[in-house]
Amino acid sequence: MTDGVIADKDIRDAFFDEVYEIGSRDKSVIIMSNDMDVVGLQRFKGNFPDRFINVGVAEQNMINVAAGLASCGKKPLVYGITSFVSLRCYEQIKFNLCSMKLPVVIVGMGTGFSFGFDGPTHHAIHDIGAIRVLPEIEILNPSDAVSAARFAHLAFGVTKPVYIRIDKGVVPALHSTDEDYSAGFKLLRKGGETCIVSTGNLSHEAVKFVDSIDESVAVVDVYRLKPINKLFLHRLLDRFSRIIVFEENAGALSTIVSEIIAKYSISCRFKSVSLKNKEYLYYGDRAWFQDYFGINKSNLLKVLDSCAYD
Fold it and tell me: What is the Cα–Cα distance from 182 to 86, expressed in whole angstroms?
């Protein structure tokens, strides 16, 4: 399938279409849901009903059942709203999956404020910071349909738990099908002395921002948040004197990059345009959230100017 065909899909459909192809060839693949529907899985449910399990609104039990299936040689994929399949199931993921190194694919649907109208319970802004401290788990955060489709294949090839954050909607392609994705990140814009490091949805906004200003600024999309490719990312970041993290999360990519800067003693000015570590007890669409809390181009420009002169 060409990049263009995949890029025209909703990110969710691109991912689950590949899951269907994998499951149609491998009878050990089992899909589990917490009573959440996905258009891209309707074919799977219709053609392989004996391998689709709707556990209901019981996410912790869903992880436990997936652990049992994985221990018997099955390849379970569980999915649901991001905040529910991550934080609500934290202890089950930690002990029943990570400690046993069981190959269960956990798919969180909706990142950041993508389900903003559903309120605080659906905000996916703390999950990366929480999940990344767990041992033996990989975190993938695709930024487009092309990378999401590829990650479906990567996930089923890993022999330990994998956590994938899937956004929603149709977005321009930032990646291509011929990439090997082994680096864990991609340099989207080369730039000069300043580099904006982003992930997921905001990688698109970072590219738009850089393309709209008359300055040479690099943009990096980090799509594998754990294990982070620290050595290669260090060699990349060491080229820049100013590094700005741009993310729709709290305690996530900003923390990861600052750890790399500290570990390798990278000499640079470091800034972060990200969410504060607090509860966001608000309702609204994603654009409103980003503008209201300063995760936008205007604040990015202010930080870029201050980074250049302080």
Answer: 25
Sketch out the chain's domains with CATH numbers: 3-166 (3.40.50.970), 185-309 (3.40.50.920)
Sort 274 into a burial class: Cβ within 10 Å, 0-12 / 13-18 / 19+. buried
Q: Look up the pTM and report it.
A: 0.96
pLDDT values of the chain reduced to their tens digit, one per residue, 310 residues: 556 678 889 999 999 999 999 999 999 999 999 998 888 788 999 999 999 999 999 999 999 999 999 999 999 999 999 999 999 999 999 999 999 999 999 999 999 999 999 999 999 999 999 999 999 999 999 999 999 999 999 999 999 999 999 999 999 999 999 999 999 999 999 989 999 999 999 999 999 999 999 789 999 999 999 999 999 999 999 999 999 999 999 999 999 999 999 999 999 999 999 999 999 999 999 999 999 999 999 999 999 988 765 5
CB 178 within 8 A of CB 6: no
